[in-house]
UniProtKB/TrEMBL annotation:
<dbReference type="Pfam" id="PF01361">
    <property type="entry name" value="Tautomerase"/>
</dbReference>
<feature type="active site" description="Proton acceptor; via imino nitrogen">
    <location>
        <position position="2"/>
    </location>
</feature>
<protein>
    <recommendedName>
        <fullName>Tautomerase</fullName>
        <ecNumber>5.3.2.-</ecNumber>
    </recommendedName>
</protein>
<dbReference type="InterPro" id="IPR014347">
    <property type="entry name" value="Tautomerase/MIF_sf"/>
</dbReference>
<dbReference type="GO" id="GO:0016853">
    <property type="term" value="F:isomerase activity"/>
</dbReference>
<dbReference type="InterPro" id="IPR018191">
    <property type="entry name" value="4-OT"/>
</dbReference>
<dbReference type="InterPro" id="IPR004370">
    <property type="entry name" value="4-OT-like_dom"/>
</dbReference>
<keyword id="KW-0413">Isomerase</keyword>
<feature type="domain" description="4-oxalocrotonate tautomerase-like">
    <location>
        <begin position="2"/>
        <end position="58"/>
    </location>
</feature>
<comment type="similarity">
    <text>Belongs to the 4-oxalocrotonate tautomerase family.</text>
</comment>
Length: 71
């Protein structure tokens, strides 16, 4: 029974976009690994950008710097 956990930043992803991700990941597991869709479980966890960081700063700070032309 496949279980796929996807973590993304919470930045306006629509329900339709997330449904498409779930559908396409399920189809990929079926096509590549021959896993029945009814066995496949997928979760999408959205993380606030204040709670996701890399390169020593939060994603919120990184987005602000990118928007102002700084890096």
């Amino acid at each position: 029974m496949p279980f796929v956990s996807i973590r993304i930043t919470r930045e306006g992803n629509t329900a339709e976009q997330k449904a498409q991700v779930i559908k396409e990941v399920t189809e990929t597991l079926e096509r590549v690994l021959h896993k029945p869709p009814e066995w496949t479980h997928i979760t999408i966890e959205e993380i606030d950008t204040d709670n996701w960081g890399f390169a020593g700063v939060t994603t919120t700070e990184m987005r602000k710097a990118q928007a102002s032309g700084k890096r």
